[in-house]
Design a protein that fits this description.
Length: about 100
Amino acid sequence: MPAQSLLTALLAPAARVLLCGGEERGDWLVNYYSAQDRTFGYAVALTRDAGPAPLGRLALLPTEEAGLMKQSEWFDLLHQRRALDGPIALGWRLQLNWS
C-alpha cells in the first residue's frame, strides 16, 4: 500500500499533493495480515519545489529487489523521521532522507 500510494501521489500533476493514510487497530484479522495491530494516522505534504527549508526528500525508483512494506512500517518511518534506502514493494525502492 505505501508504494502504490506514493506512486499515485508522485504522478499527480499538482505542485503539491497531500498524502494521508491510517488504520484502526484490528482484532482477529491481524492474524490473517488483513489488519494492523495498532491505530495510527498520518498526513504528508509532497511538493515538487522544496521551498526554503524542506523537511526531507524522497524518491521512488524501479528496482529488481523484492520487498513489502506495511502501512504501519511506513507510518513509523514518517513518525520517527527515519531514513531509508531500500525496497518497499515488488519492483520499487524508496530513498527517503530527512533534513
